[in-house]
Amino acid sequence: MARRRFQDPTPQKRGGWWTLRYWQDEFEEGKRIRQRKRIRLAPATIGEREARRLATEHLRPLNQGLQTIGSATNFQAYVEKTYIPTVMPFLAKSTQDRYQGVLDNYLIPAFGKHCLRDLTPLAIQGYFSQMANSPLSRESKDKIRDVLASVLVSAKKYGLLITNPVEGVQLPRDKRGKRQVKPHITPEQFDELVNEMAEPYATMVYVAIYTGLRISELAALRWSDVGFDSITIDERFCRGDWSEPKSDSSNATIGVDRRVIERIHRLKLLTVDVRAGSGIRQYKVVKSDGPEDLVFQSVRKGAPMRDNNILSRHIKPAGRKLGFGFVNWRSLRTSRATWMIEAGANPKDVQGQMRHSRIQTTLDIYAQFVPESQRRAIEKTTSMIDERIAVARAGRVVGTVN
Questions:
Q1: Model confidence pLDDT, tens digit, residues 63-95
Q2: Across the strands, what pairs with 281?
Q3: Strand, coil or helix: what is 3?
Q4: Interhelix angle 93-102/138-157, nearest 10 degrees
Q5: pTM over 0.85
Q6: Exposure of 118 by Cβ count < 10 A (0-12 exposed, 13-18 middle, 19+ buried)?
Q7: Is a pLDDT exceeding 80 seen at residue 34?
Q8: What is the DSSP secondary-structure string of 232-281?
């Protein structure tokens, strides 16, 4: 196919409109074709000079190379043939599942038939502005925007787009303020929860809340990672996917209470009863404890644990039985940071325990203020004020007497 030429067609009046005919490259079934297009530029009431100016502006991206040939690629075709096989494998398995759901349920139905070049900032902003009355939470809307940005950033990286049109796109304001306090449990609730659960899941929850480890890091913990009073995090496992920790800060060795280490080693002595038909089978909790063997092994086969199975079959049922409003793996990690702040720990120490790259993440997202600590802070502040006022008054009285 011949290369594109500079186009300067003259606008024509058709009915009550100025129209413009020009050539545009398209992709159909993986092949580039050149098609004749006709668009309405403006009402026929404007002058010819203004119509020609609008035509020049419309054709400027094509004539100046600001719109690549690849931008004619269909959005759905790009997602299925390029983004999913090329970009998605570098994401964690749980992230891949979440992204796939967003693509299938929201983005492909909305933009699947469009070319990449049709996803302009105005078109994308219009899509999100229509979500003002949507029942979706702000977090869900933000996730949709993140996934769309990921797709279009990759299109820019591979030369199909000149810019990322998602940059600067705003989400509609929520009808109520963002919830400030993240779900967490108290130490008393934690004790009840652990006592309600069976092994080895109770120990997983115990270790999670005393160390702040993510479930993917717990599932990948090996006996060689367990020290005398420390745990090394250098691997993660999530639903069949093995990889390095989430970030450089996450790849670290942290100090832990000796009781945590003792409880981990106690697993080697335990057996559990599992119903099999009308009978009961006994299984060792730890099948093998070599340096490269997993600490937390599936009860029957000794395979790596699946986080969603433990959550839905053990943690949530125990939480519902005890009357907790909400409990999951994330809330256990949040609880750890909250307790450390409540106990008066230095925020930098909390950041090190949680292995966050930025302390703002620790303070704004994980370390939640609880009513008890707020009351104690208020009481201490009031006591300080009363004490200083009393001292000042006593000084004034002495001065008056003298």
A1: 765 455 556 678 888 898 889 988 998 887 778
A2: 274
A3: coil
A4: 100
A5: no
A6: middle
A7: no
A8: EE--EEETTEEE--SSTTTSEEEE--HHHHHHHHHGGG-EEEEEETTEEE
Classify 92 as helix, strand or coil.
coil
Q: Per residue in 176-189, pLDDT tens?
A: 655 555 678 888 88
Nearest by Cα to 332 from 229, 230, 202: 202
CA 52-58-59 angle, to 5 degrees, is 90
How many other CB atoms sit within 10 Å of the CB of residue 110?
17
The closest alpha carbon to 26, from 67, 64, 60, belongs to 67
Token pair 């129209």 is found at 19
Which residues lie closer than 8 Å to 356 by C-beta, 6 or more apart?
249, 362, 366
Rounded to whole angstroms, how far apart are CA atoms 313 and 305?
Answer: 13
* CA 361 to mean position of chain CA atoms: 13
> How many CB atoms are closer than 10 A to CB 194?
17
Residue 345: alpha-carbon gap to chain centroid: 27
Q: Are 353 and 335 within 8 A, CB to CB?
A: no
CATH class of the region 187-329: mainly alpha
Residue appearing with tokens 């106690």? 266
What are 13's strand-pairing partners?
18
> The tokens 């297009």 sit on which residue?
37
**pLDDT in the model for residue 31:** 61
Find the helix packing angle between 201-211 and 258-266, rounded to 10°. 160
The pLDDT value given to residue 359: 75
2 pLDDT band, cuts 50/70/90, is very low
For the chain, how far is it from start to end, CA to CA, in angstroms? Answer: 105
Residue 323 CB-density burial (10 A; 0-12 exposed, 13-18 middle, 19+ buried): exposed
What pLDDT score does 38 carry? 85
For residues 259-288, give the mean pLDDT: 89
What is the Cα–Cα distance from 108 to 99, expressed in whole angstroms? 12
| Residue from 309, 204, 319 nearest 264 by CA | 204
Q: Give the residue among 90, 77, 89, 64 at the shortest CA–CA distance from 6.
A: 64
What are the residues facing 374 on neighbouring strands? Answer: none
Amino acid found at 185: I
Find how far residue 343's CA is from the centre of its chain: 28
DSSP tag of 286: -
